[in-house]
């Protein structure tokens, strides 16, 4: 299997030079030309704006001087005419002098109106140029390409890795031997088709109205097929293995529906966040400056923008660790490696990021960690249909209490902290920063996603606590006495994830509440409500 995976990676890498010699070089040349044209256009517009401002300043100075001279001449003329009126020997002569003075006043008023009209035309022209420039920049930089490319390549490599693990026989493993085809179809839809489709369609969202209708149609189709497969399996391969209690079985089906919607909304948010990213990124980065030590993160966050961070966190934390069935104690470290690879690519370029990504993932596979992870994937998911059902978020199968507790500690921490809480934090931040730009439909979409996420996260947190707390009370003294450092380390990670999960959930709930209580709709744990003038 190692040879096949390395051949797949080599094939992928080997194709790059071939493409680079022709198509890729043409593409890079076109991109360079487009960027150069954009730079030249921006420089020309900048010179034009500067010329307009200089023209406006010169016009204002000239007109102001002219008006001042006219007023001064009028004042002198009025003083002289006043003396003449006083010295006039007849009423007709005085009336003639007054008419001439009135004509002078009207001339000055006309000059002032001309100056005002001139200033208004220049101001309107500058405003139109500014709006056009803002629109052009916003429409070309909203999609976070510097995050899309590394995330897409990483996901593709992981797909190759998993395909090799599933399809290649080894050590008594037969590819998908005896697995229910409908559950395999549900897994492919849940972990590949639906996330990729919704992330892609999410980029068609608008800041005011939210996700496009086609995204909800896609989700509805995936949801219908997903549960058709589950009900088919319940009547077939899973029959006789289901929960004996009907209320519990129905409750698990409800949780499966919420879990499905939660994954879909997280994937969709990774794309829709690009709609308002241009407007909110600066304010979001400024809010980080208010957080203690948050300023150190600003240079990294500014490389990606809000939408780039949202996509990166979904792929590296919520999606890939669960796709690979990474155990909770090591999932944060695996997610950190994925995150670092994306940042290296985004901060430099593909010719730096791609070799680093291939080297790190290849090293992880060749070092034995990859083979161990494949073995875990086969054991947890591919060895029985009940594992496939749990892999797609449907816990409808009755299992021994000890096995259920072990799975809760091994996997739910990954779902709670890396998926639910990080996504809830990002979604609540997005809602608070974009609140005034959204219409009621977009706000409803965001609130529905956050509400379901809070419910799912709360259920997982309680489930973990119900298992972890008794285990901690019962086994911690013996572990300390024996000095088993590995168990202490694993247990400490579990406790930290549990506390972080429940504390983070309370934090997110507070952020959502203060969206409606703060004038700026933005609230930080360390600073409280952020000033609307920030």
pLDDT averaged residue by residue: 78
Oligomer: single chain
Specify the structural class. mainly alpha
Strand content: under 5%
Number of strands: 2
* CA-based gyration radius: 33 Å
Distance between the termini: 56 Å
Helix coverage percent? over 70%
Could you state the order of secondary-structure elements as H and E?
HHHHHHHHHHHHHHHEE
Unreliable sequence segments: 1-24, 125-141
The shape, in one word, is elongated
- How many DSSP H or I helices? 15
Strand order of the largest sheet: 1-2
Integer count of domains: 2
Largest sheet: 2 strands, antiparallel
Describe this structure in words.
This protein is mainly alpha-helical. The chain has 2 domains: 32-135; 142-529, no CATH class. The protein has helices at residues 2-87, 91-141, 145-167, 181-202, 213-235, 246-272, 274-289, 298-323, 331-347, 350-366, 369-382, 385-391, 401-434, 440-482, 485-515, and strands at 523-524, 528-529. The protein has a two-stranded antiparallel ribbon. Helix 3 (145-167) runs parallel beside helix 10 (350-366) and helix 8 (298-323) crosses helix 9 (331-347). The longest helix is centred in the first third of the chain and has 86 residues, at 2-87. The two termini are 56 Å apart.
């Amino acid at each position: 299997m190692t040879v096949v995976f390395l051949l797949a990676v080599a094939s992928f890498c080997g194709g790059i030079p071939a493409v680079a010699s022709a198509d890729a070089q043409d593409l890079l040349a076109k991109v360079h030309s487009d960027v150069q044209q954009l730079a030249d256009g921006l420089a020309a517009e900048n010179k034009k704006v500067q010329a307009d401002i200089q023209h406006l300043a010169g016009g204002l100075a000239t007109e102001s001087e002219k008006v001042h001279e006219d007023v001064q001449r009028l004042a002198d003329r009025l003083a002289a005419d006043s003396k003449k009126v006083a010295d006039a020997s007849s009423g007709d002569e005085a009336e003639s002098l007054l008419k001439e003075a009135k004509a002078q006043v009207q001339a000055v008023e006309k000059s002032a109106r001309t100056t005002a009209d001139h200033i208004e035309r220049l101001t309107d022209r500058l405003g139109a140029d500014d709006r056009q420039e803002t629109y052009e920049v916003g429409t070309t930089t909203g999609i976070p390409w510097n995050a899309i490319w590394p995330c897409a390549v990483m996901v593709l490599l992981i797909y190759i890795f998993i395909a090799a693990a599933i399809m290649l026989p080894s050590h008594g493993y037969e590819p998908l031997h005896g697995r229910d085809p409908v559950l395999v179809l549900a897994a492919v839809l849940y972990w590949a088709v639906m996330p990729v489709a919704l992330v892609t369609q999410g980029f068609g969202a608008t800041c005011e109205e939210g996700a496009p209708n086609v995204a909800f149609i896609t989700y509805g189709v995936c949801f219908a097929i997903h549960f058709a497969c589950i009900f088919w399996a319940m009547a077939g391969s899973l029959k006789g293995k289901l929960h004996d209690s009907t209320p519990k079985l129905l409750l698990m089906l409800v949780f499966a529906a919420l879990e499905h919607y939660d994954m879909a909304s997280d994937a969709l948010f990774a794309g829709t966040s690009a709609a308002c990213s241009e407007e909110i990124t600066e304010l979001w980065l400024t809010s980080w400056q208010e957080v203690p030590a948050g300023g150190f993160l600003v240079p990294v966050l500014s490389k990606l923008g809000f939408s780039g961070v949202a996509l990166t966190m979904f792929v590296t934390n919520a999606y890939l660790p669960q796709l690979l069935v990474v155990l909770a104690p090591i999932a944060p470290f695996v997610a950190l490696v994925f995150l670092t690879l994306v940042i290296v690519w985004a901060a430099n370029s593909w010719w730096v990021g791609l070799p680093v990504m291939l080297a790190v993932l290849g090293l992880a596979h060749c070092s034995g960690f990859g083979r161990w992870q494949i073995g875990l994937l086969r054991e947890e998911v591919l060895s029985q249909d009940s594992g496939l059902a749990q892999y797609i978020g449907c816990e409808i199968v009755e299992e021994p209490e000890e096995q259920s507790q072990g799975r809760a500690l091994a996997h739910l921490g990954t779902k709670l902290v890396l998926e639910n809480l990080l996504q809830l934090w990002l979604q609540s931040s997005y809602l608070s920063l974009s609140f005034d730009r959204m219409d009621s439909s977009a706000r409803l979409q965001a609130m529905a996603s956050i509400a379901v996420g809070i419910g799912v996260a709360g259920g997982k947190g309680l489930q973990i606590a119900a298992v972890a707390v008794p285990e901690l009370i019962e086994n911690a003294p013996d572990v300390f006495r024996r000095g088993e450092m590995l168990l202490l380390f694993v247990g400490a990670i579990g406790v930290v994830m549990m506390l972080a999960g429940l504390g983070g959930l309370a934090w997110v709930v507070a952020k959502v509440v203060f969206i409606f209580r703060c004038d700026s709709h933005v609230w930080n744990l360390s600073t409280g409500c952020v000033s609307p003038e920030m």
